[in-house]
Structure formats: C-alpha cells, structure tokens
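Anyone? Bumping this.
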Amino acid sequence: MTNKKIAIIAHDGKKAEMVAFLKDHLTGLSNIEIVATGTTGKFVRQAGLEVDAKLSGPLGGDAQIAAMVVEEQIKAVVFFRDPLGKHPHEPDVQMLIRLCDLHNVPLATNPAAAHFMLKGMIEEGKLS
Ligand SMILES: O=C(CO)COP(=O)(O)O
C-alpha cells in the first residue's frame, strides 16, 4: 500500500484563505505527503511544501483525487469550496464530496473545520 496523503484543494475565490491556512499549519503539514489539484498545488509549493499536483480542477483534478479516495490513498481532504462561485466541473466537486462520505474519509470544507480536523488527526497520531 502506498503512503496515504492529505488532499488539499481550493477554488480560486478561496486560494488566499488556503495559503493563509497553509502558513498557519506549516509545521503540522511539513512531514505529511500532500496531493492537490493543479493550481492549488502551485500555491502549496510556493508555501514551501512538497506536493503531488494533479490536473487543474476543471480539467479533472477533483476526479483524480476522488479516484484516490476510492482506492484508499487519501487520509483526509481539505477542500475550500467557494460557495459564491459557479464551476463548470460542479459534478466532479459533488462526486468528490459524495465519495468522501461514502468511504468515511474526513473532509473539511472551510478553514475552521480544517484546523480542527488536522489538529485532531495529529493528536491521535493519524497523520504520522
Ligand atoms: O477547481 C478546483 C476544485 O474544484 C481547484 O482546481 P485548481 O487547484 O486547479 O484551481
């Protein structure tokens, strides 16, 4: 079994919040393998973290990460969705959320929830 990864995804309207979140959690995230959608991955790299960047969301990146969820390669998903935005790939977004729920993979869709999800997982040794 490959090492499981944390997935990080942010819509464009939430990328600034995602970068702020990464900066606040750099220590906790530094030893964890990260996978991200394409453009999000560039921001993750700029924040100083290594990342496996998939395709951009509208080109299938959410679907690639959804497939990893199904194949038990993902420990948790941080997905900062923009509730005010419209996205051509909304079906892929819904698929990812549905598959996290189906496979009981922790999913946080805003920074407050993501903070407590990571904190709890670190405290319980689920990210080491
Ligand atoms: O659209 C996205 C998630 O649905 C994010 O994709 P990018 O990281 O490529 O911007």
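Late reply, but here is one note on the structure posted above: The longest helix spans residues 90-102.
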